[in-house]
């Protein structure tokens, strides 16, 4: 595990630390930021456990926490994608295992969860569109919500990590369904507005699955690939066609097709 101390910016590790400190009754909130409250909680844990009280979360402090909360770690790791899931997806799509592994490496965001919450990215321009679809005038809600509601795509308001849930909650205050449809979810960042076309009863059903296991993130990806006629591109290893269909016209800028080809060669 990462060595952490006050001011550390390794959000995923800090969140895991904070969740365990909260389980120990030493911390009241989890925000992914190693500030004063987290520093004091770490020192309290070290004091209780007879460790050196320095506020530095290294091997000894991590080990102490892991021994105290084995059930928590089991709940977290129980949601991880497994080799059997990748093999099942390859068989289901009638695609080479190496091709699916290449896509999982390049197109995924790595881990699908930030400890116990699926990774998301909130898109304010999609929220604008989803509100209009429901007959809600987005202009009437724009003041004070400029960071979550805007007519054109921009990265200016992205916060990343757990802070995206703050943006989502703010949007839910305007309309919950439209807000959920305006975020991308999980390992493969499938947008919520795709829920019904991918076979989910509604966006609430989709989000519930995203919270349950990374396996469901992969299943949503497979459904998306089928719906958008990208299976043949995977079967033929036509990485340019796949990247164009999955990433859109900007795929060349990020060299997705080249990254996919190289990943495929490694897995072969």
From TrEMBL:
The Peptidoglycan binding-like domain is annotated at 13-65
Top-level taxonomic group: Bacteria
Which residue intervals define the domain N-acetylmuramidase in the entry?
96-267
Q: What is this protein called?
A: Peptidoglycan-binding domain 1 protein
| One Pfam family linked to the record | Muramidase
List the InterPro entries.
Muramidase (IPR024408), Peptidoglycan-bd-like (IPR002477), PGBD-like_sf (IPR036365), PGBDSf (IPR036366)
UniProt organism field: Prosthecochloris aestuarii (strain DSM 271 / SK 413)
Which SUPFAM superfamilies does UniProt cross-reference here? PGBD-like (SSF47090)
């Amino acid at each position: 595990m990462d060595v952490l101390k006050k001011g550390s910016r390794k959000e995923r590790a800090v969140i895991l630390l904070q969740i365990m400190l909260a389980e120990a009754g030493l911390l009241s909130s989890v925000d992914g930021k190693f500030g004063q409250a987290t520093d004091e909680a770490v020192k309290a844990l070290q004091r209780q456990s007879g460790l050196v009280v320095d506020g530095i979360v290294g091997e000894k402090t991590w080990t102490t926490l892991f021994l105290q909360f084995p059930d928590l770690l089991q709940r977290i790791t129980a949601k991880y994608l497994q080799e059997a899931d990748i093999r099942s997806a390859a068989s289901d799509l009638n695609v080479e295992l190496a091709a699916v592994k290449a896509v999982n490496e390049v197109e995924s965001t790595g881990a699908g969860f930030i400890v116990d919450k699926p990774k998301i990215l909130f898109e304010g321009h999609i929220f604008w569109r989803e509100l209009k679809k429901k007959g809600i005038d987005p202009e009437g809600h724009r003041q004070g919500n400029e960071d979550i509601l805007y007519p054109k795509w921009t990265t200016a308001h992205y916060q990343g990590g757990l802070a995206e849930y703050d943006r989502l909650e703010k949007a839910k205050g305007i309309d919950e369904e439209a807000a959920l449809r305006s975020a991308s979810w999980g390992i493969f960042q499938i947008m919520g507005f795709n829920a019904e076309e991918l076979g989910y009863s509604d966006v609430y059903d989709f989000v519930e699955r995203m919270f349950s296991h990374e396996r469901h993130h992969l299943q949503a990806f497979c459904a998306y690939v089928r719906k958008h006629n990208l299976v043949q591109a995977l079967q033929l290893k036509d990485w340019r066609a796949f990247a164009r269909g999955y990433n859109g016209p900007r795929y060349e800028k990020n060299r997705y097709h080249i990254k996919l080809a190289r990943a495929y060669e490694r897995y072969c």
